[in-house]
Amino acid sequence: MNKKLNDEPTPEQIRELCEWCGWKFDIEDGHIIWAYTPDGDHLDFCEEPALDLNNLFKYAVPKLGDSLEIELFKPNVNWFCQIRSRTTIIATSKGYHKDPALALFWAIWEVIHNGRTYDKRR
What we know:
Blueprint: H1 11-21, E1 24-28, E2 31-36, E3 42-44, H2 53-64, E4 69-73, E5 80-84, E6 89-92, H3 100-114
Helix pairs in contact: 2-3
């Protein structure tokens, strides 16, 4: 499915990515009561973590494995991302985005839903 320019992920999609990265959430009535980061930090009464490059590179990119490369580029006014091995494109952002974090999010989302990681140590 091609993403339209600047498609924002839903809170549920952000939460799913965070859980894939190792975050733990306690949810009551659709609201996050507490969260534990993969580092073990405890956060009370929080929302989904910010969808920004800092969090994506800190928590999600390492989960992809050591043998993949992230190519995040801006061929015009918008950003595009692809995740690749040395010889193969594994996933793309499926569209161009004004925010580079969105481009990276959607490429990682494709990897998660294709069920592939490429870290030979795991």
